[in-house]
């Protein structure tokens, strides 16, 4: 594979991966403006974020079988078209109920991009390069938290929150053109793949019964929920508790994202010296320790704005290191059912993420305690699952080794 083709594939797959996060991050600074415009509260506006997470979680299970049956690009075309239509609808939304519903539909469309991009990594690159490729996708994905909230803050303040969804529509159209003309079909349609409920359920169960998959996918999903807790709670914590402006919030969000992006790139160097399994266990322990300090500091009132930012930065660094490794390890055993495995991987992340975001919106406490509480519970559960699940993996397919080599 030439460097030019490699770069083009990473850029397009990264853009597909970033579409969902862009849809989240860009409108976060507009929460107060949306609440005022639609005559509701910020907590109620947060339900539009929850509906987005729920839509992505449900939609990923839909697209997995479709990607394995019809190839990668046809379901992707459908999802992108649905996303564009829903984004235009959000632009014209006149009530919070309409916005919540359209955000759900928008998520159903965007998750086609997320599932297809992860599946195509498994199609186009060798297993030994998976963790590296996922880290590069996170680098492209990093444009979302660096650019989106800052742009969203200025757009919301200057042009109104509706314009944010117009920008998202344009982004989706540009990505669609890149997919049509520049992205190759990586997996031919498989007429033998049945879309009947029975075989589909059996495909999902077959993946779920694989110890390496359920150990690393659910461990990664629980750890990743720390990111969702931060996303859901940050507008309240920073703009209502610490009283920062909409524009300042955008800059804080962008700065904190450097931890997530930077650590994912540090991972590219670490996987040259250590196995993904070793990185996961070490970082999982570190994340649990940081979460303990964060919760104690939040409960005792020791953390001001700067202290809270430092704690969140540490958590996001851990998530950035964990995500490419848990994803690569979870998908490594699969080739034929890569679409189903990718959809289950994404669905588990979004299902837990949507539960976290709903839980955060139910808290009435105006502090960082709800965020810290969710992070410490999820990281502790992830660590326990990792320690227990590893015992059930009889034959491990290493993400760092080529040829699907088995290590006992």
Indicate the topology:
Elements: H1 3-25, H2 31-37, H3 42-70, H4 73-91, H5 96-124, H6 130-141, H7 143-158, H8 162-182, H9 197-208, H10 211-241, H11 246-270, H12 276-300, H13 305-331, H14 338-362, H15 369-389, E1 396-397, E2 406-407
Antiparallel strand pairs: 1-2
Commentary on this structure:
Strands 1-2 form a two-stranded antiparallel sheet. Helix content is 79%, strand content 1%. α1 (3-25) crosses α6 and α10 packs antiparallel against α15 (369-389). With 408 residues, the protein is an all-alpha fold. It is built from 15 helices and two strands. It has one domain (3-182, 197-394): Up-down Bundle (Growth Hormone, Chain: A), CATH 1.20.1250.
Task: Put the structure in a nutshell.
The protein is an all-alpha fold. The protein has helices at 3-25, 31-37, 42-70, 73-91, 96-124, 130-141, 143-158, 162-182, 197-208, 211-241, 246-270, 276-300, 305-331, 338-362, 369-389; strands spanning 396-397, 406-407. The chain has a two-stranded antiparallel ribbon.
Cα-to-Cα separation, first versus last residue: 32 Å
- Going by CATH, the architecture would be Up-down Bundle
Instruction: Report the structural category.
Output: mainly alpha
* Sheet having the most strands: 2 strands, antiparallel
**CATH hierarchy class name:** Mainly Alpha
Count of the domains? 1
What's the total number of strands? Answer: 2
Average predicted confidence as pLDDT: 86
Q: Provide the succession of SSEs.
A: HHHHHHHHHHHHHHHEE
Kindly report the spatial arrangement of strands forming the biggest sheet. 1-2
Overall morphology: globular
């Amino acid at each position: 594979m030439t460097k030019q083709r490699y770069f083009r594939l990473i850029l397009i797959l990264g853009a597909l991966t970033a579409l969902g996060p862009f849809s989240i991050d860009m409108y976060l600074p507009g929460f107060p403006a949306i609440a005022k415009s639609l005559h509701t509260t910020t907590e109620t506006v947060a339900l539009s974020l929850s509906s987005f997470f729920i839509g992505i979680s449900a939609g990923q299970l839909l697209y997995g079988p479709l990607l394995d049956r019809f190839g990668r690009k046809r379901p992707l075309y459908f999802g992108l078209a649905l996303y564009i239509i829903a984004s235009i609808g959000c632009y014209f939304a006149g009530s919070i109920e309409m916005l919540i519903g359209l955000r759900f539909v928008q998520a159903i469309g965007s998750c086609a991009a997320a599932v297809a991009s992860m599946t195509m990594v498994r199609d186009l690159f060798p297993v030994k390069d998976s963790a590296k490729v996922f880290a590069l996708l996170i680098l492209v994905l990093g444009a979302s938290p660096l650019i989106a909230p800052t742009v969203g803050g200025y757009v919301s303040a200057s042009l109104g929150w509706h314009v944010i969804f117009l920008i998202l529509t344009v982004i989706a159209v540009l990505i669609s053109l890149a997919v049509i003309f520049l992205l190759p079909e990586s997996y031919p349609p498989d007429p033998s793949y049945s879309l009947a409920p029975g075989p589909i359920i059996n495909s999902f169960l077959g993946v779920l019964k694989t110890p390496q998959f359920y150990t690393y996918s659910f461990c990664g999903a629980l750890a990743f929920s720390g990111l969702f807790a931060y996303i859901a709670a940050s507008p309240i914590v920073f703009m209502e508790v610490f009283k920062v402006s909409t524009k300042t919030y955008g800059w804080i969000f962008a700065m904190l994202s450097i931890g997530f992006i930077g650590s994912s790139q540090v991972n590219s160097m670490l996987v040259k010296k250590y196995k993904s399994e070793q990185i996961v266990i070490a970082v999982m322990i570190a994340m649990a320790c940081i979460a303990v300090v964060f919760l104690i500091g939040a409960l005792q009132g020791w953390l001001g704005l700067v202290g809270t930012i430092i704690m969140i930065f540490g958590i996001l660094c851990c998530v950035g290191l964990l995500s490419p490794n848990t994803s690569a390890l979870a998908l490594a055993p699969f080739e034929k059912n890569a679409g189903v495995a990718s959809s289950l991987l994404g669905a588990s992340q979004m299902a837990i993420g949507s539960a976290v975001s709903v839980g955060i919106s139910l808290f009435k406490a105006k502090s960082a305690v709800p965020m810290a509480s969710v992070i410490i519970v999820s990281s502790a559960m992830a660590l326990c699952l990792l320690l227990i699940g590893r015992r059930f993996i009889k034959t491990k397919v290493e993400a760092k080794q080529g040829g699907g080599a088995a290590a006992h």
